Amino acid sequence: MAGSGTAHLRGDKALLSVEDLVVEYPAGRRGAVVRAVSGVSFDVLPGETLGLVGESGCGKSTTGRAVLRLDRPAAGRICFAGQRIEAAGERHLRTLRRQLQMIFQDPVASLNPRRPVRDLVVEGLSVAGAPATERSVVSEAVLAQVGLGDKRFKDLLPRQLSGGQAQRVAIARALAVAPRLLICDEPVSALDVSVQAQILNLIEELKAAHDLTVVFIAHDLGVVRSVSDNVLVMYLGKVCEFGDAVQVYDRPAHPYTRALLDSVPLTDPDRGFAGPALAGDVPSPLAPPSGCRFRTRCPRAADRCVQQEPQMREVASGQFAACHFPLVEERVDDADVTAADGR
């Protein structure tokens, strides 16, 4: 389950559990901070793919970086395979990171421009002190797995690769250390549409072949639906909704999720978008609205939304939303109450 300040229903079984995560950055003014992530909680079971979605600046990439301690959390707990990441020392963290790898948004920028492909994909093994013979064998194997087995690729530099080829190298680099968890941060957004499907299919194939658990971060809702088991929707640093991908897409509970789905362009250009455009701009994270952070743009906002911050609650079986007035909510009817009471 996911939430803010809520218990983890699956915490004992989860490979990754994040609880009340807070990430802050100095804002340039004296004492001012931007709270990029504000009390985010979720867990991921082994073998699952969790999709993180939301507008740019909502905190989804920061959340992924915090899981690997690339950004240090200000508060909260991050537990991977029973080990605390946020409290780990540098030596222990270096060991843990072999089990957690990240694929970044800009594949070329994430690769050392001076090193050939054959060396790039085993950088992690080099840091770990693996012998040259092992690095050579692994380099050849992982390049073959990502479709770059042709010998001509081994000596190329990143600038000589296409965007899709560079992303395949980045994926091979992540696989070389045999991780258990793969965090994909917008892995196809910088690629041509024709290449995106190839990379998505490759990630799915490698996930199955290597028994990977995946956190997939993206703003493209269609991409997230195609690869995710569960979806976590974020807005202005907080979780809005969590649930099974099909359930969330077919019956969104939070008005923000509904607005995101309505913003998807239809295949027929004459029909425009799936629904009305979301009104207003995202508020400043330096001064988020009181109560519900989405209330300044929400068509269902009421006085309660101004005065009281909504908490994550189950609005349908396995589906959670932080909303006072969710779009879907299962209610127990009088007959069920009577039967439960034995009357």
How does the helix and strand content classify structurally? alpha/beta
Q: Could you tell me the strand content as a percent range?
A: 15-25%
Rg, nearest Å: 22 Å
From the N-terminal CA to the C-terminal CA, the straight-line distance is 33 Å
CATH class of the largest domain: Alpha Beta
The backbone outline, from C-alpha atoms, is globular
Q: Give the name of the CATH superfamily of the largest domain.
A: P-loop containing nucleotide triphosphate hydrolases
**How many E strands?**
12
CATH fold name of the largest domain:
Rossmann fold
What summary fits the major beta sheet?
A: 8 strands, mixed
What is the level-2 CATH architecture name of the largest domain?
3-Layer(aba) Sandwich
Helix content: 25-40%
What would the average pLDDT be, to the nearest integer? 87
Query: What's the tally of helices?
Result: 12
Total separate domains: 2
Uncertain segments are 2-8, 331-343
